[in-house]
Amino acid sequence: xxxxxxxxxxxxxxxxxxxxxxxxxxxxxxxxxxxxxxxxxxxxxxxxxxxxxxxxxxxxxxxxxxxxxxxxxxxxxxxxxxxxxxxxxxxxxxxxxxxxxxxxxxxxxxxxxxxxxxxxxxxxxxxxxxxxxxxxxxxxxxxxxxxxxxxxxxxxxxxxxxxxxxxxxxxxxxxxxxxxxxxxxxxxxxxxxxxxxxxxxxxxxxxxxxxxxxxxxxxxxxxxxxxxxxxxxxxxxxxxxxxxxxxxxxxxxxxxxxxxxxxxxxxxxxxxxxxxxxxxxxxxxxxxxxxxxxx
Length: 295
Known about the structure:
The chain has helices at about 1-15, 30-35, 45-50, 55-60, 110-130, 145-150, 185-190; strands spanning about 65-75, 80-95, 95-105, 110, 155-165, 165-175, 190-200, 205-210, 215-220, 225, 230-240, 245-255, 260-280, 290.
């Protein structure tokens, strides 16, 4: 449950910052000396360049599917794992929208009844996605635009560093508690601080770390109260020399749910098995993922 609460921010906001961006060809690789000499661009300018690639490259992203595996540990006050749940999902994109299909829970394939329910749910999402402009939610998840996000947060300390063998531009961010916000994702942004790594050559988010600097109340604290110090990170990497995709995330969250139960959770997401595919969705009964034939 708590992973889902944090994901409202990490997936909607991080995804809006981590839009698909083309991977530079080998001949276009920036030399280290050039990177050092080049001035660091302003944050708004930098993020505008990332956003600019979204529309032009959504079709490339829609040629792919990949697997996300989640492990969610419930931990007691002594740090001992009390309960572990796992889930594996197939992720693909339709008309700019991310769609997930659950294929396993706790290491077991869904039974026939649950598979049909899940397929029916995915079919409906595919139909909605095809009728809904990119950037608008289809499943209730909120999104935050880059422009508004930068209005909610203060950014500081831009610098250039080598990250995993690539030149990155890094900056710190912290939510402005006096910012005017609407919705859960924007409200959460005011309570967060962290650091963002932007791949300099491809203008893509390579890594993000964030933590809650204050308690975050969901529904005024009636539903949940995420505690100060809860934290998470998010990673991406280039795939097949043409696009970037998530590679994983991890978080530690402490909260009080329904004013009564205190919960501590540690969750890990691992993304892999990136493959090209096509989506057939002429009707709700034909929304399927078809792997591309090998040449």
